[in-house]
Design goal:
Helices cover 38% and strands 11% of the residues. By secondary structure, it is an alpha/beta fold. The radius of gyration is 19 Å and the shape is globular. InterPro entries: NAD(P)-bd_dom_sf (IPR036291), SDR_fam (IPR002347).
């Protein structure tokens, strides 16, 4: 292990001035939003998903927006803001618990009962560095279940309505740079029922799975003859997001210590800088709306631009065989085959 320690590494000390806000991105690409139906998970007030929803409604004029979250009262302020800025958009709350397959199936059925076409799906919901080990209702580690597996099921259940809008539909799966911490090992996602649990390793597993999911989904859709717009997107470090509500004060120390178990040293360019809550949805919105990204389907988007496979820091998130095995494992876990 290298002598370099977490304390020696600068992280998140300055704003990135060249990252636009969510409303600025939507304003530039408003034509891609007009009259569309949009589904967003993770839309509680104070979240990146909520900020994306507000920006899309105020600056893009969609037809319908489905805001998915566990608790309606936490989404109510978001809906109120949207109605004040754009009374014409149909904004609909749908209850969704990504740790519960029954809830996911019910949510998907509710959306499909209200629209036969979905133009944009943004999977924003997630949890971040929960210190205590926990499993979903179906026995899957909480980060993997919430951030990845639940969205795997939701996305595939909504797929008929997305296929109906091709070639215009886009799917954005939120990820982050957390995938660089450690390799995704499919046989250890439950950490021996918590005996070997480490929150940063669990988060990294889920994050890598999100990147690989977008990659494999794009490949499978192309194989079926559908032109796709599937991307994973890193929003950057947004400390004001409610995603950070459960973080311990020394959380980054644990991240670097876990990183150094699998790497010789921390890279010089690991500092992502700090983004405001308004800037948080910028990169995912670019992935959802910017026509320049056409032709790069399945790729990872960070700092507002596509990262080619050769520029990815870690090999496991561009491993097509691992992506295939992950998809098949996901199908086994949810008990249903897709595509």
């Amino acid at each position: 292990m290298a002598a370099q320690t977490a304390e020696a590494v600068k992280y998140g000390t300055e704003f990135l001035k060249d990252i636009p806000t969510g409303p600025e991105v939507v304003e530039r690409h408003s034509g891609a939003v007009k009259d569309t139906n949009i589904v967003i998970s993770g839309t509680s007030e104070g979240s990146i998903g909520a900020e994306a929803a507000k920006a899309l409604a105020a600056n893009g004029r969609p037809a319908k927006m489905f805001l998915l979250a566990r608790t309606e009262s936490k989404v109510a302020p978001v809906i109120e803001t949207i109605k004040k800025t754009n009374y014409s958009v149909g904004v609909i709350f749908v209850q969704l618990d990504l740790m519960d397959f029954d809830s996911i199936r019910k949510a998907a059925a509710s959306v499909l009962a209200q629209t036969s076409q979905i133009h944009i799906l943004m999977n924003f919901a997630g949890i971040f560095i929960r210190p205590e080990y926990a499993q979903s209702k179906h026995g899957v580690e909480q980060h993997f279940a919430t951030n990845h597996l639940g969205h795997f099921l939701l996305t595939n259940l909504l797929m008929p309505a997305m296929i109906a809008t091709w070639p215009h539909a886009r799917i954005v799966q939120l990820s982050s740079s957390g995938h660089i911490i450690c390799p995704l090992r499919l046989d250890t996602i439950n950490f021996d029922d918590g005996k070997t649990y480490h929150p940063w390793e669990a988060y990294s597993h889920a994050d890598s799975a999100c990147v690989l999911f977008a990659r494999e989904l794009s490949r499978r859709l192309k194989a079926k003859g559908f032109k796709t717009g599937v991307f994973s997107a890193n929003p950057g470090f947004v400390p004001d997001s409610n995603l950070n509500n459960h973080l311990p004060p020394d959380h980054m120390k644990g991240a670097f210590e876990k990183y150094l178990e699998f790497h010789e040293s921390v890279p010089d360019d690991i500092d992502e800088g700090v983004l405001s809550l308004e800037q948080g949805p910028a990169t995912p919105l670019i992935a959802a709306l910017d026509s320049v990204l056409a032709g790069w389907e399945g790729k990872y988007v960070s700092d507002g631009k596509v990262v080619d496979d050769g520029e990815m820091k870690e090999s496991w998130v561009v491993d097509d065989e691992l992506a295939r095995r992950l998809w098949e494992m996901d199908e086994d876990l949810v008990g249903e085959k897709f595509l």
